[in-house]
Amino acid sequence: MTVLTLIRGSITDQRVDAIVNAANSSLLGGGGVDGAIHRAGGPEILAECRALRAARYGRGLRTGQAVATTAGRLDARWVIHTVGPVWSATEDRSGLLASCYRESLRVAAELGATSVAFPAISTGIYRWPMDDGARIAVRTARESVTAPVEDVRFVLFDEHAYGLFEAALAAED
Ligand code: AR6
Question: 123 CA to middle of ligand 1, Å?
Fold first, then answer.
């Protein structure tokens, strides 16, 4: 049975099979979680991202899709890069945000990962409201997780995010 858990802290401190990165379509790094992952994981991750761009992803990774690389020096086997949607007040992009969680879990299962750590995708630089982002994260992970993944962790940077994920989890039960 899959367990969804919440952790307060930095995703770069997690010991799991796969760490999910809230990347952008260039796959070449950025701020927030992306910057932290590349800093902590070292240049091997960026080298693989560049190779992906040179091969299958010449035009970048599309929003809602996911792709894996090495985790470099992180205490994980893989980083799964996914591109969240930028929040829009006029267009409903929640299907794309759900797709990030679903596709990341699909890639994780394909790799044989049993444990996966997620950040709250799109809720930082991409401005998605945290309460809605939390609901989409929890609901989609519960619906789309498959074996061998059995441990899904949401790693929240601050108390506010943690509280909203807690509420989203409680509302699902
Ligand atoms: N561990 C866990 N959560 C974190 C960490 C961390 N080390 N650092 C930030 N957060 P963001 P996005 C939280 O901006 O909104 C990058 O430049 C943060 O508080 O990392 O999907 C990419 O290259 C927020 O709640 O990702 C893209 O261009 C959440 O993680 C763009 O930002 C996500 O914030 C993606 O923006």
Answer: 7
% pLDDT > 90, the chain: 97
Reported as a pLDDT band with limits 50, 70 and 90, residue 162 is very high
Question: What was the pLDDT predicted at 172?
Answer: 84
CATH number of 3-172: 3.40.220.10
Spatial CB neighbours of 152, under 8 Å, sequence gap ≥ 6:
2, 3, 4, 5, 105, 115, 116, 118, 141, 145
Enumerate the domain spans of the chain.
Answer: 3-172
Give ligand 1 pocket residues (Cβ under 6 A): 10-12, 22-24, 30-34, 36, 84, 119-126, 155, 157, 161
Q: Rounded CA gap, 124 and 113, in Å? A: 26
CA 22–ligand 1 middle distance (angstroms):
6
- 75 classed as catalytic: no
